[in-house]
């Protein structure tokens, strides 16, 4: 029963994810000024927008999905704790509320989208096309059912996405940033500075004696939280993807040959020709030009007389199917190379054609494409088998088995991670091996618990199940466990303190008349030069913090900043400031203008949606929100 409820509630969520991915600008506006209203919330309700209710389970799934998207983009998982630090939890909630507010507004305004437009969009989706590149209804139904949707529900959500685009596109139409704003930002970004600087390292800090046992113990007690052992979880996982299943599917030559014969044209390379075309408004003018060419005038001269450039008459090197007019296509592919056609009457024009180059087509043998065809067939069969395996796995889980037990019973290979913390590291502090790439399992595992039946995660065209098998609570470590780490940290802090004082001393002397070169010689370091670096540019071999500090310092001013880590400090002097002229026609400025335009569109759209939310009414259950994002445990 509980599983059925989760399935039902996931339908709306899945499409919301797609709407965020394909239709709506990411909005930056506050929903946190709205007072929370807890009265009337059910235990599973996280937010209400007008008459729309968002459940905790729906939001948790969406939040997890967003973490996985970011993890795939950067090649490493993002934990829920990191996501909260970055404000991603609030951003996802803002997006969900924005979508709901826009949906409510389009309904009240009576906006609509034709069935034909929705059907066309679905049929053009490459996810729903078969091996022949055409829309397959059975494939469409299978994929959306795996995601938890009926056909009617999926179409309804596609309609919502289209309507959101209608409304938001109208709100931001015609926005352009002022010229003064563009110029000011260009000058800010392109300003360049030069500086001389020295690096103070551990060598300039002098000898650091080891701390006494008493001092180290006191240091450790004051900072015990820094050395605390994290919480670990034991996780079992089972990934089921078309690629995995296809490896065990054998496709016979007979089956592959049938597909080869049915789709032979797909594997062949068609003949291509470079076609030149001179269009005429009527047959008489085309006939007159044809007679002149026969009398000795060149095809190209006729084009020049009609004020047509080479680019105007060149259709490119094209296949026959790429020429939209069948009459012109047939004539072009019947011509001998360098010959000129008789006037050809097309659908809209009459034209003379010339072929300047012919690239013969190829017809591959079955043997040359058999591996490709067999893999395609195996993948198609694997997708069909996946639904059956999915049902069997869910039956086992419904009977009380965890995912490792279910996999063993069905002859599948599950993976068990004995101990992993929120950052994806094991007991040895190193990244855990065996975690799937491009998807975050750790975050949802820490948002779950032992005995909780988790929904599978979409993964590489298939699904990934996981269960939490054990929890090792976080604990304080004894000094003996982390003594080396404590000593290293203590020493680094001592070095940093000395270097900061040394840098301040050098700056004071330079400000009173000493030179950077004299102070560098006294400290035993060399003076380095960084020339004409920008705020956001990559200054090779220049400490990153020096760049930021130099742009806070006037010309001939002196300053200090941390270098590459706490054990390095930099003393510098700004020697030059250059502000290049603004070229509004340059590509960089055009890109900047477009970025500004998009930012202003987002700001205007954000203000509009904030007003919608105020008018419609938004309430948020902060307790449910904390549970869904892993900031609190479910009671």
Written overview of the protein:
With 635 residues, the protein is of the alpha+beta class. It contains 25 helices and 15 strands. A four-stranded antiparallel β-sheet has the order 12-3-14-13. It has a four-stranded antiparallel β-sheet with strand order 9-4-11-10. Strands 6-5-8-7 form a four-stranded antiparallel β-sheet. A hairpin with a 2-residue loop joins strand 1 and strand 2. Helix 2 packs across helix 25 and helix 12 crosses helix 18 (366-398). The longest helix is centred in the middle third of the chain and has 33 residues, at 366-398. The protein is extended and about 105 Å long. Residues 1-41 have low confidence and may be disordered.
Task: Produce the secondary structure layout.
Layout: H1 2-22, E1 45-49, E2 52-55, H2 56-74, H3 80-86, H4 88-109, H5 115-123, H6 137-146, H7 151-171, H8 179-190, E3 192-200, H9 202-205, H10 213-222, E4 232-240, H11 242-246, H12 253-262, H13 264-267, E5 272-280, H14 283-294, H15 299-305, H16 310-313, E6 314-319, H17 326-332, E7 344-345, E8 350-359, H18 366-398, H19 403-410, E9 415-420, H20 442-447, E10 457-459, E11 462-472, H21 483-511, H22 516-523, E12 528-534, H23 544-550, E13 558-563, E14 565-578, H24 587-616, E15 618-620, H25 622-628
Antiparallel strand pairs: 1-2, 1-15, 3-12, 3-14, 4-9, 4-11, 5-6, 5-8, 7-8, 10-11, 13-14
